[in-house]
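Write out a record, focusing on structure:
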Amino acid sequence: MQNSECIEMFERYLTEDKKASANTLSSYLRDIRQLGEYLDTHCENGIVDANAEDLAGYIGMLRAEGKSVATVSRSIASIKCLYAHLFIKQLITVNPAQGLIPDKNTQKLPEILSSKEVELLLEQPKCIDPKGYRDKAMLELLYATGIRVTELIELNISDVNLAAGVIRCASRNRERFIPMYPAAVKALSDYITLVRPQMILMPDEQSLFVNVSGERMSRQGFWKIVKHYQKKAGIEKDITPHTLRHSFAAHLLENGADIHAIQEMLGHRDISSTHMYSQLVKKQLKDVYIKAHPRA
């Protein structure tokens, strides 16, 4: 079986049987394509014929290239999933991926912005053109609600209730309503009433946020927006679109919000995911103590 045929079969399995999310599908297929390229270049075997030594060599190369523990671990997970499927389908008689062991990954606390840095970032979009109004609304909404970037770009105009000052977020078979502070409501109201009608391509467009072509904003498009305003603000921290979500949760916790309420707003199924922000706040307090206490 050719590598391309193997990858097509794996894609069908992930899509039809595993019902994998778009992100998982994209990541796993990218990992397997990269494995296939490595095998073509460095080994005489294709994906189906690869042995344990071939796979160990590929993982060793990733580590030698300085790939993160998370990236290597995900690659191993992708490879294990593929070869388990090939074994079940009886396309291989021995599973060469069984011996692959991911590195131990110590949980890295996410980067967050200080309140002053958030204010600085939110000040960057200038409401002098349609893009400025839209970008201001997107950044304000993200920090006001802590929703995921995927949830942000998947919002429809019908998910916004300006009068009540809330948005409806439907994700992962769950629905939640999240309040917004007044500045976010105003930024969103200005965008919806003054700008969005000019930006949408079709009158019946449902997407809340659209790109310059009038179609739904993409993750990549929003990533560029965040990086653009980070540079304008002169913030040296490595900001990602998720940074405002992490900052939202940490700042609420710092100011006495109930952790279960934060869990609900973030859409976490497991409270342990939310407890990460408690560790983050404690670490920040310790850092402040070390920097500020005369005897620290």
